[in-house]
Specification:
Helix content is 17%, strand content 30%. It is an alpha+beta fold. The chain has one domain. Strands 11-12-15-1-14-13 form a 6-stranded mixed β-sheet. It is globular and about 50 Å long. The two termini are 32 Å apart. The model has no long low-confidence stretch (mean pLDDT 94).
Length: 208
C-alpha cells in the first residue's frame, strides 16, 4: 500500500481510478521556452497545441516519473517499457523526449484514449468558450476530504469504458490540458515500486 496516499485518504482502497499528480519536475534547457513547443491555431483564444517534442538534458531525467514544465507528465525509458509490457498501453501513448543530441532520454505521457465526459459528476463549470473556434475549457472544481486533499468522481459507465491510461474529455486552464487518468491496476503497480508518488483519486459516483 502507498503509505503516503493512505495517510492522505482514509478510504483510498475505495478509489476506482487516479489522476496523475507527480511532483518531481523534469526541467528542460535554459534557452528553451514553453512557447517553442506549441503552435496557436486560434489567435482569439490562443489555445495551444503541442507541435514539437519536449527537450531535456539527460541529467534532468533521473526520476522514474515526473512533471514537465509544460504541465504534462513523463516517465523514464525503463518505466515506459514496463508499463507497455504489463498493461494495455502502447507506443502511441508516449511521445519521446530528447536531448539536444537527438537521444531519447525520457518519455512524455500522451494517452490516446479519451474518457467519457465527467463534467456532471464533478460539477465542472465552463470557464471560457471561444466564439471563433469553439474551444472550451473548464474550471477545476474538486471535492476535498477532511484533510484538505482533493478528489474527483467517476461514473460507472466511464469506469467501465476507460483504459489503463487515459485523458479526460474535459480540458482545464487556458492551456487546455486534460487530466491524465490511470486505472486502479496501473496505480497499484506504480505505488508498489514508487511509494512516494502522489495521485488524486476518483471515487464512484452513486446514481439515484
Amino acid at each position: 500500500m502507498n503509505q503516503l496516499m493512505a495517510r492522505l485518504y482514509d478510504n483510498i482502497d475505495e478509489a476506482k481510478a487516479f489522476a496523475l499528480s507527480f511532483t518531481n519536475f523534469v526541467y528542460d534547457y535554459d534557452d528553451v521556452i514553453i512557447d517553442d513547443y506549441f503552435i496557436i491555431p486560434c489567435k482569439h483564444c490562443k489555445r495551444m497545441i503541442q507541435a514539437k517534442d519536449y527537450l531535456a538534458p539527460k541529467a534532468n531525467c533521473k526520476n522514474p516519473c515526473g512533471i514537465l514544465t509544460t504541465f504534462h507528465f513523463g516517465v523514464s525509458i525503463e518505466l515506459r517499457d514496463q508499463l507497455m509490457e504489463r498493461f494495455e498501453i502502447s507506443e502511441q501513448d508516449f511521445r519521446p523526449i530528447r536531448n539536444k543530441r537527438g537521444e531519447i532520454v525520457y518519455y512524455q505521457i500522451t494517452p490516446q484514449h479519451t474518457m467519457l465526459p465527467l463534467q456532471k459528476e464533478n460539477d465542472w463549470k465552463a470557464a471560457k468558450l471561444c466564439p471563433q473556434c469553439g474551444s472550451l475549457y473548464y474550471k477545476d472544481h474538486h471535492y476535498e476530504n477532511s484533510k484538505g486533499e482533493k478528489y474527483y468522481y467517476i461514473s460507472q459507465q466511464a469506469l467501465d469504458e476507460m483504459h489503463d491510461i487515459n485523458v479526460t474529455y474535459e480540458c482545464f486552464s487556458r492551456f487546455y490540458i486534460p487530466r491524465f487518468v490511470i486505472s486502479r491496476r496501473v496505480y497499484n503497480f506504480l505505488v508498489e515500486r514508487y511509494p512516494r508518488t502522489h495521485y488524486f483519486p476518483f471515487y464512484l459516483k452513486e446514481t439515484t
